[in-house]
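Exercise 4. Each item below gives a protein and its sequence. For each, produce the structure-token representation.

Item: Clavaminate synthase family protein (Catenulispora yoronensis).
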Amino acid sequence: MDTLEIDATELQAITQLLDKLEGTFERLDTEEALHQVAVHAHELPSRLRLALNAFRLERMSGVLRIRGYQVDDDRLGPTPGHWRESRNPSPAHREELLLVMLSSLVGDPFGWATQQDGRLIHDIIPIQGHEQEQMGTSSEALLTWHTEDAFHLLRGDFLAFSCLRNPYAAVTTIGFVDTLKLTDRTRSVLAQPRFNILPDNSHKAKNNSPGTAESFAYVEEMLNNPAPVAVLFGDLDKPYIRADPYFMTVQDGDDEARAALAELADAVEDDMHDLRLEAGEFCFLDNFRVVHGRKPFKARFDGTDRWLKRVNVTSDLRKSRGARTSAGSRSIH
Ligand SMILES: O=C(O)CCC(=O)C(=O)O
Ligand SMILES: [Fe+2]
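Answer:
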């Protein structure tokens, strides 16, 4: 993992930039705001911009932690009990603004019409009733390692988090694909389109408000009729990954693919790293080069729970033009 510690001078520059901009953008999810914010990102301290560019160009491990920003915990108020209860204007507007600025330096933020009612910026918080689910909103269950939105052809290249609070130091887990120990034979099987990846539950209509998502047609299609895909791709010596074992199957009778997937799961689990996100920390994951999950934790449901903001980032918005709710929108369906 790579870590950048923001120093006092940089913190002052960031604070001044946020002071200047926070009143300008009431919403961050409009075409205009996203354009403007991406340009203001170039006013951030150069060490941050250099680090994010190095991250984008794969000159780093695939995890970049940016530490040293201070969150005003009182301003945030209680952690919401559900992402639907998130307030507007957001009490975390400054952190969301900084998250979108930083994200704009690695690509372009986007969201899903089928997730969190189409919001661009997600709240990752424990939700009562979801304790045992395989979702960011669960708590007591182990969140099995995964590529984010692995089922989707247009999944993000990167994933960005802002940690607002994590009082009990819940652990995000990270697996680095660069250093995975797999036999050549297994690599070659994993590189063949012999695996089905079903949509995870966060994309299902039952976990969105009725009528809010533009269309669940693609998600339905992927549920009922998943096209077989490869798990490893790119350069097989240093592969990219696309996997979410909890939601994966192989064709009936394809024991070789099943064994390769099991070997991959063992290799990833043997070398998982703990990441305890702290309040004020921003964290970027390379969604092609690392997988992530989360260890179980006990949520409190009293307004003091862990609270992350999350945004998906793509290297190429143009690829999804026909799959967004309109050509100008950032919402894929
Ligand atoms: O809560 C976490 O640490 C990560 C959860 C997760 O998988 C996600 O937000 O994509
Ligand atoms: Fe995830």
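Check: DSSP finds eight helices and 16 strands in the chain.
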